[in-house]
């Protein structure tokens, strides 16, 4: 399977909102409501931020929200904070018990 | 607190084998599916393999199918992956990650700190 497509970078000022897109196909993002998002700070392990398109694990601030339209999923970070600066990866179930990730987006808080 | 501690990484020659372990604590290990995810140096994430809470069901990425074998010992709270016929492109940090339920679903939380596998002659 091909990786999901994410923009390499995104940025916003503190307090602003930023949206990161994740584009796949009808065989992955568009075919299942099994999209998740991970945050990874440099040198650290990834952390689950969103799963099943819109659900937040316990402890994740409600500033983080997910959505999906067709073959494109999105992660929106509202009220940007300095600690939100990190790499963000989307992933999706791709059928036949396979999972595909996006290439990652580096979020910079200006 | 959930803790996942990977071990077993290192330098191995192409064609060689390695077994990674992930010692789990802080939760009822036998109640959750588990997975391995890897990240090549400076690259993105790649799902490798998953296993249900009982070990009855296993899942593999096409890139490792037939070469890697995932397993678990619920009596030892430990997850394993046996990696055979290793290739240079298997070089990566390998993360162990916990599922949210007993059945395997494609989301993982939390993750261990990872163990580096380098395949090189």
What is the ordering of alpha helices and beta strands of chain B? Answer: EEEEEEEEEE
* Cα shape of chain B: globular
- Total strands of chain B: the figure is 10
Low-pLDDT runs of chain A: none
Number of helices of chain A: 0
Kindly name the structural category of chain A.
mainly beta
Biggest sheet statistics of chain B? 6 strands, mixed
- Given as residue ranges, the uncertain stretches of chain B (5+ residues, pLDDT < 50) are none
The radius of gyration of chain B is 13 Å
Coarse shape of chain A: globular
- Percent of residues of chain A in beta strands? 35-45%
> How do the strands of the widest beta sheet of chain B line up side by side?
2-10-9-4-5-6
| N-to-C span of chain A | 35 Å
According to DSSP, the number of beta strands of chain A is 9
- For the record, give the distance between the C-alpha atoms at the N and C termini of chain B, rounded to a whole number: 40 Å
**Sheet with the most strands, sense and barrel status of chain A:** 6 strands, mixed
SSE series of chain A:
EEEEEEEEE
For the CA atoms, what is the radius of gyration of chain A? Answer: 13 Å
Give the proportion of residues in helices of chain B.
under 10%
Overall mean pLDDT of chain B: 96
Describe the structure.
The complex is a heterodimer of chains A (110) and B (121). Chain A is mainly β and 110 residues long. Chain A is 0% helix and 44% strand. In chain A, strands 1, 3, 4, 7, 8 and 9 form a six-stranded mixed beta sheet that branches. In chain A, strands 2-6-5 form a three-stranded antiparallel beta sheet, with no helix packed on it. Chain B has 121 residues and is an all-beta fold. Chain B has strands at residues 3-7, 10-12, 18-25, 34-39, 45-51, 58-60, 68-73, 78-83, 92-98, 115-119. In chain B, a hairpin with a 4-residue loop joins strand 7 (68-73) and strand 8. The radius of gyration of chain B is 13 Å and the shape is globular. Classes of the chains: A mainly beta (110), B mainly beta (121). Chain A binds chain B through residues 1, 3, 34, 36, 38, 45-48, 51-52, 57, 89, 91-93, 97-104, and chain B through 37, 44-47, 50, 59-62, 95, 100, 104-114.
């Amino acid at each position: 399977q091909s990786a999901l497509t994410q923009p390499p970078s995104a940025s916003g000022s503190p307090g602003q909102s930023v949206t990161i897109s994740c584009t796949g196909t009808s065989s992955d993002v568009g075919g299942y409501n099994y999209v998740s998002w991970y945050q990874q700070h440099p040198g650290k392990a990834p952390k689950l931020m969103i799963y099943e398109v819109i659900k937040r694990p316990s402890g994740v601030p409600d500033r983080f929200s997910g959505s999906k339209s067709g073959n494109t999923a999105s992660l929106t970070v509202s009220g940007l904070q300095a600690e939100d600066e990190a790499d963000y990866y989307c992933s999706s179930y791709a059928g036949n018990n396979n999972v595909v990730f996006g290439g990652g987006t580096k979020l910079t808080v200006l | 607190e959930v803790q996942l501690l990977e071990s077993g990484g290192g330098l191995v020659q192409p064609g060689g084998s390695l077994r990674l372990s992930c010692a789990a604590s802080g939760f009822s290990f036998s109640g959750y599916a588990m997975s391995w995810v890897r990240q090549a140096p400076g690259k993105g994430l790649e799902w490798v393999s998953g296993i249900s809470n009982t070990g009855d069901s296993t899942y593999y990425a096409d890139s490792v199918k037939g070469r890697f074998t995932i397993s678990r010992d619920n009596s030892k709270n430990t997850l394993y992956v046996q990696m055979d016929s290793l290739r240079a492109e298997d070089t990566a940090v390998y993360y162990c990650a916990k599922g949210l339920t007993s059945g395997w679903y494609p989301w993982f939380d939390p993750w261990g700190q990872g163990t580096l596998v380098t395949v090189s002659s």
